[in-house]
Amino acid sequence: MSNHLEAKMGDIADTVLMPGDPLRAKYIAETFLEDPVCYNRVRNAFGYTGTYKGKRISIQGTGMGIPSISIYTNELIKDYGAKKLFRVGTSGGMSPDVHVRDVVLAQGATTDSAIIQNTFGSGMYYAPISDFGLLDTAYHAAKDLDIPVRVGNILAEDRFYNDEMDRQKLIDYGVIATEMESAALFMLAAKYHVKALSVLTISNHLVTGESTSPEEREKSFNDMIKVALEAAVQSD
Ligand SMILES: O=P(O)(O)O[C@H]1O[C@H](CO)[C@@H](O)[C@H]1O
Ligand SMILES: O=c1cc[nH]c(=O)[nH]1
């Protein structure tokens, strides 16, 4: 048991997929895993463990935003020994090169969150990045699955509604998409010497206004999960 998870030691696999939406954790477990067992219902942050292609994998809902994912990331690593963490989430397109339904692998996560300054002090602009081994494995797994992916710098922002941010400048400097968690996931993974990657689906586009139908979203969503699961199985 940890502060926010009722799982017993050993209930959670060392590889964890982490969707923001707890109901997506249920969907992934019931759709993709064999013999899924629910190990957490605290705060309805559902967590499941099952197997995929014979590998034991957990799926843990993290809630939205850096404070929430930070709680689950800390407890998964420190209290349950998680070693490989894959965020699987929706993301808003920013660059004209990405479109709705695209799957994005986050190479790094630029952020406006105070976690960087709180951790390193003012004047140090730490760059949270994903694990290269997981990124490389996911990229090639996607190729094998014939699922096109985009790789690049994403934004992990503190506010979903933010009309004060200069998004165009970020786009000009190569940021391709936005979400709200990956910077904390990558920074904590680095702190505890474990591996993390974010595999995202573009659900809407902030600049072009493109959006997806529910059916299209489900299809592209499933692509994202397949890429993450294959990377989980194939990576060291
Ligand atoms: O789909 P999830 O994983 O929740 O991710 C995205 O969706 C939420 C905002 O709607 C934020 O958590 C953002 O990062
Ligand atoms: O625009 C979006 C879409 C998904 N998630 C976000 O954080 N922003």
What is the CATH architecture term? 3-Layer(aba) Sandwich
Number of helices: 7
Instruction: Give the oligomeric state of the chains in this entry, treating copies of one chain as homo and distinct chains as hetero.
Output: single chain
Largest sheet: 5 strands, mixed, barrel
The third-level CATH topology is: Rossmann fold
Residue runs with pLDDT of under 50 for 5 or more positions: none
Ends apart, CA distance between termini = 28 Å
Helix content, binned percent: 25-40%
Strand content: 25-35%
- Global Rg: 17 Å
CATH superfamily, please?
Nucleoside phosphorylase domain
Could you tell me the mean pLDDT? 96
H/E order of the elements? EHEEEHEEHHEHEHEH
The bound ligands are: 1-O-phosphono-alpha-D-ribofuranose, uracil
Strand order of the largest sheet: 5-8-7-6-9
Number of structurally distinct domains? 1
Site (Important for catalytic activity): 217
EC number: 2.4.2.1
Binding site for a purine D-ribonucleoside: 4, 179-181, 203-204
Function: Catalyzes the reversible phosphorolytic breakdown of the N-glycosidic bond in the beta-(deoxy)ribonucleoside molecules, with the formation of the corresponding free purine bases and pentose-1-phosphate.
